[in-house]
Amino acid sequence: MSERNDEEREFDIKWADGAEHKEPSARARMLAARWKENPPGPVPFRADPEHRGRGRRSSWVSTVVVLGCVAAVIVLLGYINYRTPY
């Protein structure tokens, strides 16, 4: 009977979640050890515009490209439907 109680206690998730001290994950321990010797520098929330790669395009260019693609698909589907005999 005591063996069954031990198994229930071992796999009781509520009991495990209620523990006062939780061991950090292996990755957290690794990063803590690495940052103790060499702390990371500050990282901005957003990258500077010159670091974005292609540069910043205005939003209307993206809108024109998307609408152009949609129009091309509509024309292509209309052409295919026109050429297909019923």
List the helices and strands and how they pair.
Elements: H1 2-10, H2 13-17, H3 26-37, H4 59-83
Structure description:
It is a single chain. With 86 residues, the protein is an all-alpha fold. The chain has a domain at 61-86. 59% of the residues lie in helices and 0% in strands. It contains four helices and no strands. The chain has helices at residues 2-10, 13-17, 26-37, 59-83. The longest helix has 25 residues, at 59-83. The radius of gyration is 30 Å and the shape is elongated. It starts with a helix and ends with a helix. The model has no long low-confidence stretch (mean pLDDT 79).
Protein traits:
mainly alpha, 4 helices
Q: How would you briefly describe this protein structure?
A:
The protein is built from 4 helices and no strands. By secondary structure, it is mainly alpha-helical.
Q: What's the assembly state of these chains?
A: single chain
Class by alpha and beta content: mainly alpha
How much of the residues is beta strand, in percent?
under 5%
Order of helices and strands: HHHH
Distance from N terminus to C terminus (CA atoms, Å) equals 78 Å
The residue fraction in helices comes out at 55-70%
Q: What characterizes the major β-sheet?
A: none
How confident overall, as mean pLDDT? 79
What is the β-strand count? Answer: 0
What overall form do the CA principal axes indicate? elongated
Radius of gyration: 30 Å
Low-confidence stretches: none
Counted by DSSP, the helix tally is 4
